[in-house]
Amino acid sequence: MVSALRTFEADPVRDDSLVWTESARALAILAVVLQHSTEPLLTTLPTSAVSWVSAVAVNSATRWAAPLFIMVSGALLLRPEYAQGGAFEFYKRRAARVASFLFWIAAYAIVLVLSGRLSAGLAWKGIVDGTLYYHLWFLYAITGLYAVTPLLRLVRGSVSAPAWRSLTLLAILIAVVYAVCLKFWWVSSSGGPVLFLPYVGYYMAGSVLSGLARGTISRGILCGGLLLCVTASAVGVVVFTDLYGNLYFGRYFHGNFSPPVVLGTFCVFQLLREMDWHSELLSALSRASFAIYILHPVPLVCLAWAFGTARSITGALLFAVSAFCLTALMAKCFYANRVFRRVA
């Protein structure tokens, strides 16, 4: 695994105070693969099955993954020293990354149409509203956050630290309320170009929490808070699924803006800052995280085709390990090719 990852050539974080972001991205991508490997169990098994409850628990323990990526981006891109940075220079530096996003969205659309899983019309609709494939929403969210980053930098440089924290809290609360309305009162969901808006709060929170002095919150409190949030998320899924008779309402507690997930993500973010882990493997995983994120559904689909959908938590965990290793090898091949390296 390590040898497969050594070939990744993205620059590591050079600021020693931000080395922890490498471990954050590495652990987040591991959690993403684990989360997506256990998803099928939630929808295919009866809710009375032990493996279903186990899948709920494992899934609940990984829901912080995608929001953590966004918080890390906020910690890196909304630093106070960047408050006066020019918009043009920022967009110029991000153009290649956004181009790679467009490449992968187009690639998935072409494969889905050619394989007969989607018609051209449905594929186009998925491209427009961000629902083409289950993990591609993240590319839309990050692109939107890139678009508003110069504005957010300007705001941060123009207001006091307490005001910035208040704006961050307001953005998070709006997202939480919106998620409740979306799930329980059938409010229309907005996707595509504005899919990023609820994530602005997470993005800003990354800059706020990264500014806290280490030791402000003890590791014991953070670990206890994370355990409580994971438990609340899992219990919420089980109770609401039983109460409403279907998984739709129970999955609210797995949403990125349910209070347990929001607070749990904050706890993970701070824990990783406090622990400040660093190793060659974590650094390599961090640099490979985008390629693994984009490619990991491919081996998951192939494994399901070859062996059938996992029917137990053990099978799902084996799928997760296998998919992660296969994706790392696929990513290595991409990075070894000068053309594909540009989009990975």
From TrEMBL:
<dbReference type="InterPro" id="IPR002656">
    <property type="entry name" value="Acyl_transf_3_dom"/>
</dbReference>
<feature type="transmembrane region" description="Helical">
    <location>
        <begin position="167"/>
        <end position="188"/>
    </location>
</feature>
<dbReference type="GO" id="GO:0005886">
    <property type="term" value="C:plasma membrane"/>
</dbReference>
<feature type="transmembrane region" description="Helical">
    <location>
        <begin position="98"/>
        <end position="120"/>
    </location>
</feature>
<keyword id="KW-0812">Transmembrane</keyword>
<feature type="transmembrane region" description="Helical">
    <location>
        <begin position="220"/>
        <end position="240"/>
    </location>
</feature>
<dbReference type="Pfam" id="PF01757">
    <property type="entry name" value="Acyl_transf_3"/>
</dbReference>
<keyword id="KW-1133">Transmembrane helix</keyword>
<feature type="domain" description="Acyltransferase 3">
    <location>
        <begin position="20"/>
        <end position="330"/>
    </location>
</feature>
<keyword id="KW-0472">Membrane</keyword>
<keyword id="KW-0012">Acyltransferase</keyword>
<keyword id="KW-0808">Transferase</keyword>
<keyword id="KW-1003">Cell membrane</keyword>
<dbReference type="GO" id="GO:0009246">
    <property type="term" value="P:enterobacterial common antigen biosynthetic process"/>
</dbReference>
<comment type="similarity">
    <text>Belongs to the acyltransferase 3 family.</text>
</comment>
<feature type="transmembrane region" description="Helical">
    <location>
        <begin position="284"/>
        <end position="307"/>
    </location>
</feature>
<feature type="transmembrane region" description="Helical">
    <location>
        <begin position="132"/>
        <end position="155"/>
    </location>
</feature>
<protein>
    <submittedName>
        <fullName>Acyltransferase family protein</fullName>
    </submittedName>
</protein>
<feature type="transmembrane region" description="Helical">
    <location>
        <begin position="194"/>
        <end position="213"/>
    </location>
</feature>
<feature type="transmembrane region" description="Helical">
    <location>
        <begin position="313"/>
        <end position="335"/>
    </location>
</feature>
<feature type="transmembrane region" description="Helical">
    <location>
        <begin position="252"/>
        <end position="272"/>
    </location>
</feature>
<dbReference type="GO" id="GO:0016413">
    <property type="term" value="F:O-acetyltransferase activity"/>
</dbReference>
